[in-house]
Amino acid sequence: MWVRCALSGAQAGSQAGSQLQPGLLATWRRHSGAASYSASAQPSRVRALIYRSHGDPAKVVELKNLELAARGGSDVHVRMLAAPINPSDINMIQGNYGLLPKLPAVGGNEGVGQVVAVGSSVTGLKPGDWVIPANAGLGTWRTEAVFSETALIHVPRDIPLQSAATLGVNPCTAYRMLADFEQLQPGDSVIQNASNSGVGQAVIQIAAALGLRTINVVRDRPDIQKLMDRLKDLGAEHVLTEEELRKPEAKNLFKNMPQPRLALNCVGGKSSTELLRHLAPGGTMVTYGGMAKQPVIASASLLIFKDLRLRGFWLSQWKKDHSPDEFKGLILTLCDLIRQGQLAAPACSEVPLQDYQRALGASMEPFVSAKQILTM
Fold it and tell me: Of the N and C termini of the chain, which has fewer Cβ atoms inside 10 Å?
């Protein structure tokens, strides 16, 4: 079952609770203003999804009990509420990601937790606050942990729980790619593949909020019309399959809209070639993923005669190149869009932590648009 997490203005807090499935509704009530929260409560047994070697997530990830680390003066005791399974999490476990934590490691790079207690020198957080990881590799697939204050970012509690849990990776990637590579103006168009991915759904919504028009490419599938309708509900102007984009009729799209100056590629292979073919002269294609596990294919004629630019984007590198305050500013900008009803969490399916094998399996199946959210 999918959970859609929309939000509208000042009613965000009450709507957040009403939009969750029963399991997450109880979690939201327990960890929000809907119910009191005792920071002095005895911590429950810590359970975590750990991998001791790289490989198939279904084989190397185990649910284990951990001891809670002692809390120092600059540390924060956090009880995790929800954490998604992203492609980067799977790649990290497989050992083919650009950032690999020291083994054994707790899985998960993203999620939201609530502060239980803080050390004596912590000034920016207090019990009850919601926090998300400042960087990848924190290990969010666990019930609770003690983290350094600098490893966390405070986020407002007036946004839906799933929006907070999925805030720090996909929407940030979408926003930066739309903002950093081309000087786009309202009315300009953007083309992307993997449009039903978490990043793709965020691109559609953020682009619409910025007045940009989107051409969204997806793989054909049995429920293609249902998917197309759902993406259009998010604000997509055009949704078409990769096969349709290859047809000569695809050029008719640009009779009533400008050719895109920005293409966002998460697939590679022939799909990336088609994006390049439809870019305006002087345009830029940004690659941020390689789902097809095939190289980006750019013909010499496209590069020479259209002067196209090929760029790459990795959020972790962007964070290294920018200050923590700039990342916090980005998070707050996205929170504003959420409050205004312009950015909802991706379609998601909640799975209790103990059913992690089911969640891992679903996250690696083809044509699954629902993001798996581990609930603690």
Answer: N
